[in-house]
Design a protein that fits this description.
The chain is of the alpha/beta class and 288 residues long. The chain has 2 domains: 239 residues, von Willebrand factor, type A domain (Rossmann fold), CATH 3.40.50; 35 residues, no CATH class. 43% of the residues lie in helices and 20% in strands. It has 9 helices and 10 strands. The chain has a 6-stranded mixed sheet with strand order 5-4-3-6-7-10, with helices on both faces. Strands 1-2 form a two-stranded antiparallel sheet. Helix 6 links the parallel strand 6 and strand 7. The radius of gyration is 21 Å and the shape is elongated.
């Protein structure tokens, strides 16, 4: 493995651990993603269940395999869908959009796995670039982090095509968290509707850089497309009012689309503290 990839894995792991453990230290009980089971029960063993959850006392008495389900076991399957298209390359350091999106994904995976839930990952641009099937074992976080750290940002975005591929790859309902800037997507509705139509619970982190939110560029500027070879030389001050008006329309369309599809959405800046973003997201999930 390349040294720079190893370093990125380590940074993501440290970020996820710091964000989640810091967040949990201020809570009196473990948070859930919204699908907790509040009673104790047994269910039949099925292929793929972890052996440590088998009730061997029941097996000794009744000669049948059953799984123990506890009050704080959610049985959630979390699937993270992270945009690695060219526009996600914008920004430097921790405020780079893909780095920030990866940190959100790493934190959510860390939290889910810490609670014995299953977590998996898809990275995408025009199609799925890498996938880590959802699992709940002790090596799963490393698999997710390895995939994120090895990803490169390039190409355009085709969310409807990608979500059809994701829906075909996930045979049972779960929570799918999409993390993207949504730039260059022709039909957000078509892209997200296919996941909802398959019975999945869907949440969206809409990630933009402060420059994209505020457009506070000054002086003659050359803007270059990150997903196309186009460019624009202009005075940004003359465009700012029209840009911000178009941005407001874009953001409102995202909110309305998610509202119609009953999708939780968070519109965030890459300067937003990750622990605050995580807390707001989980708080909304618990209220829902």
């Amino acid at each position: 493995m390349r040294p720079e990839v190893t370093a990125r894995i380590r940074r993501l792991e440290l970020t996820a651990r710091r964000v989640v453990e810091g967040f949990l230290s201020g809570m009196h009980r473990s948070p859930y993603f919204g699908q907790s089971i509040e009673f104790l029960q047994h269910r039949p063993y099925v292929a793929g269940d972890e052996l440590r959850h088998i009730d061997w006392k029941v097996y000794a008495r009744q000669d049948r395999l059953t799984i123990k389900q506890f009050e704080e076991e959610t049985n959630l399957r979390l699937h993270l869908l992270v945009d690695c298209s060219g526009s996600m390359a914008y920004g430097e350091g921790d405020r780079n959009k893909f780095h920030y999106a990866s940190s959100i994904a790493a934190s959510l995976a860390y939290l889910a796995l810490r609670q014995k839930d299953a977590a998996g990952l898809f990275t995408f641009d025009t199609e799925i670039r890498d996938s880590v099937p959802a699992r709940s074992n002790q090596h799963q976080l490393n698999r997710v982090l390895n995939s994120l750290a090895a990803s490169t940002t390039d190409g355009e975005t085709q969310l409807p095509k990608v979500t059809r591929q994701v829906a075909a790859a996930i045979p049972r309902g779960g929570l799918i968290v999409v993390i993207s800037d949504l730039l260059g997507i022709d039909s957000l509705t078509d892209g997200l509707r296919v996941l909802r139509s398959q019975g999945h619970d869907v949440a969206l982190f809409h990630v933009l850089h402060d420059d994209e939110w505020d457009f506070e560029f000054t002086g003659a500027t050359r803007f270059e497309g990150l997903e196309s070879p186009t460019f624009l030389n202009c005075n940004p001050a003359a465009l700012r009012e029209g840009y911000l008006e178009a941005l407001d329309g874009f953001m409102e369309n995202v909110r309305r689309t998610c509202g119609r599809l009953k999708i939780d959405t968070m519109q965030v800046r890459t300067s937003d503290p990750l622990d605050a973003v995580l807390a707001k997201f989980l708080s909304a999930r618990q209220r829902g």
